[in-house]
Each structure stands twice: as C-alpha cells, then as structure tokens.
Design goal:
Number of helices: 1
Number of strands: 9
CATH class of the largest domain: Mainly Beta
CATH topology of the largest domain: Immunoglobulin-like
Shape: globular
Order of helices and strands: HEEEEEEEEE
Mean pLDDT: 88
Radius of gyration: 20 Å
Length: 142
C-alpha cells in the first residue's frame, strides 16, 4: 500500500513539473519584451531619484482596460523589460494585444505628472508574445 502511495506521489510530482514547464513556455507568449532607452537631448531631465514605470493596458472606448504597472525604483538606461498582463485563474489573458508605455516618475505618484517627467509609448497595440520592442523616452509627459 505504501508503494502505491509513493508511486502516486511521484506521478503527481512529474505531472506538476510538466505543467510548470508548459506554463513557463506559455508565459513567454503572454509577455511583451524589449528595451527602454532615452533620446540623447533629454538626458538632463533624469535624476537619480527618478523611478521608471512600465505600464501596459488595453485601449477600449477611451479608457484604459486591464492596466498593469511595473516599477523600477533604480535603473540605468538602456534597460531591458518584460511585462505580462494580468491572467485569470485559468491562466488566460483578457486581450491578445496591449499598449506599452514607459515613463519617469519624479514624485512617487504614477497618476500625477510633474515637470521633467519623460514618456515613451508604442504607437498602437502590440500582440502578446512580441519581442524586440523599443521604447524611446522622447517626449515630456503632459
């Protein structure tokens, strides 16, 4: 009887490891990856206390849906990024594509805009699984 319990335990472990590997491979299909850099003539707007915020959202009828933030409290540009949307309990995403933005934050509040904060954005939605996205901080936030 103990032998059967051991065999069942091993089968559960192997199944869990297989699912974990499948989920890890599937996660790359749910991510958007790339590099954030800065336009050379805007470097003077950076300060060591700035945070770098990476934001993704799905645009819908004038509102941002399923917004997610990733905050880097310390960074050196260029910096590579990887961001994934929220998933449900079945490991599904709400949408297949998202807008990705990067911006600097000087006051610790991602919702407010203060002078000297910089912005970069994808020109439109980017499909999940995309790699090689380049976000260039090239404008002041408004």
């Amino acid at each position: 009887m103990a032998r059967i319990g051991f065999i069942c335990g091993v089968c559960l472990l192997v199944g869990w490891l297989f699912n974990a590997a499948a989920w890890a491979a599937d996660d790359s299909k749910k991510a958007i990856q790339g590099t954030i850099r800065i336009r050379a003539d805007l470097v003077q707007h950076l300060s060591p206390s700035d945070r770098l915020i990476i934001k993704m959202f799905h645009p819908g009828d004038g509102v941002e849906l399923d917004t997610k933030y990733s905050i880097l409290p310390a960074f050196t540009l260029p910096v590579d990024f990887r961001i994934t949307p929220t998933i449900d309990m079945s490991r599904r995403t709400k949408w297949k594509s998202y807008v990705v933005q990067a911006f600097t934050d000087k006051d610790g509040d991602v919702l407010s805009v203060v002078p000297g904060e910089l912005l970069a954005s994808t020109p439109g939605v980017v499909p999940l699984g995309t790699t090689g996205v380049v976000l260039e901080l090239n404008a002041l936030r408004k």
